[in-house]
Every structure is written in C-alpha cells, then in structure tokens.
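#structure-requests
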Amino acid sequence: MSREVLDPPIQAMSNSRRYRVNVVHEDFGGAKWNGQNKGGKPANNAYEEPDLYGEDDEEDDPAACNIEQTPNGDFKLALPVPKSFYGGLIGFKGATKRRIEEETKTEIYIPRQNENSSFVLIKGKQRDRVCAALRQIRHLIGSLRKKMKPTHFLAVALNSGQVQERFVELKKCILEAQLPGIDEELFISERSIHLTLGVYVLLDDDERQKALNELEACRSLLAGLKTPFDLTVKGLEIMNDDPSSTRILYAHIESLELQKFADQCLAHFQTTGLCARDNNERESIKLHMTVMNNRYRKEVMKCSDSFDAREILKRFGDFDFGLAQCQAVHLCVLNSRGEDDFYKITGSLNFENGESKTVQK
C-alpha cells in the first residue's frame, strides 16, 4: 500500500472560486494488474457525451424520484454532490456548467466553497430536461472519479499468526543477504500486511456511509460459501515481466471460496459508482499480499523507481508463508494508521459461525 499521497492540485475557477481536485498521480498500490479495460481495450479517461434523450431511462437513477414540481409549474432537483466535484462541474471559467445548461435547457446552481450546502440544484421548465441534466452530471462525475486517487480500500488483514511470523522471517533473510539496492524501506510493515479486495473514492460522510451499506449488502454473497475463508499464502511473484526492474514483489494467495466472494463483491461495487479507476476496469480480483513496494521508500523521488528482484526470486521464490483465515473484511482508510498500527478501519463485515455482520467504527 502506498505511503505517499501527493497533495491534489488546485483548479482555478472564475469569480475567485477555487476547488480542490483530487487527481490520481499513480495507480493505487503501484500496479495496474491488467492495464486494460474489459474486452481488452486500452483504458480511456475521456469524458463521453451522453445521449440526452437516448436509451438511458430517466428512472434508472434513484435521484429522479426526488424531482419536485414548483408552484409555478417548473421542476427542480436538489442533488447531493461531494464538494470535490464542484470544480469539474463548473469547468474553466464556468464553461462546463454553461454547456450542460445550454444543452439541457436548465439552470444549475453549484454552491460556493464557503457554503455549507452540499447539494447541486437543477431547475427546468420540463421534467425530462432536469433528468437530462442529471444524466450529464452523473456521467461527468463518473469520469472525474476515475481520475481521482483512491481514499479507501477493502482489505483482509494478514498481520497476525503464522503469516506474520513467516513474513518477518523472510524479511530478515532478504536483508541479511545484503543484495544490491535492497533495503528495509522497501518492505511493508509486518503490522500492516493484508490483501486488497477493492479500492474506492469516498469523498464525504454520505459516500462513506453508502460504502458501508453496500458492504453490508454483500453479506448475501456469502450464501453457499464456507466462512471463515481458508487461505494459503505461498510463493513470490512480481507485478511486471522484468524481475531486474520491478516495483512490487508480492506473495501469491490461493483461496477458492474467497476468490468467489471477492469477484462477486467487485461486481457489486462496480454498480455503485464508488469504485476507483482500477476496479472499474477489471473483472476479477488478483489475490495477493504485497511484500515489497518501491513506493514505500521515504525518499522515493531520489531513488530508482524500481529494484532488482532476480536474486530474491531465485532464493526465496517458493517461500511458504503458511495458512491463514479470513474472519472479516474491513473498509480501511488509505494512508492511515489505526489500532495496532494497521490501517484505520471505517467498518467491517465480520463472519461469525458462518454468519456475517457489518460493524461501523
């Protein structure tokens, strides 16, 4: 997991309005495992213009149910939108906002930065015009979210028991070998080792609560699966094809039951609009436990952007970390520290006697 999250740039707005834009500067965790969209197509962040009155059903968006008719016969919608999106919705000198208004024949009010309101107000003479603006805003927010760096991730903690003990043993052996370019800063802390089941962009309390609600909804996916999940952690691999110049070394994890749950959970969250870019572009979760990552180095900008893992793979490629059990899935805050130096946990889906419950912290 990355230790460094760069401060997002500030996008200047007209009328002295300035909004922070939370933009991805690198792939979360340092690896785009597939590097492609579904169907093998290259990833494309370009904003695609939605069809105003095409196949999209206006009632597909639950927010459309909140459209109200005013006493004068007009229609309005107060749409909750995290402030992080305001800059993108306004655009340079208000160009994006004006374009949506002109194309949908609506009026859109976006709160100023110093206002407490977190609702974007859409007004129109006709209901379908408000729905058209709603669709455009949703499309734009989805495009903007893909460019933002993740804030949370779904994790299984592996920082205890046999796996943690064996991790400490491997780390000691590698460091004692005094291999060129290999230092302690490359290793994840033994108090933080985990596997990641999903990465998300959650920008306010409403989105964090929504993510917890969706996590609770995933308990239905456990039907027919045996919990807690049994895991085998064995073997070292790299994220790229060149062991002489790699950025991530990880341990392979095998668990058929957890793999089923992880993939179904991924598919579920892809429908929520909360996923970070990588999760929107993949069809399966790669179960792995990061051991070394070049981004963990405190002075990574002064060091090489990769390390040579050939000798590590040669000597320890078949290293056996042992067995573990997944008794809970945690929604964690990226780049944070909570109890026992693990990541700060926002909420958890716990497995007890074959059943599960979501606990918010």
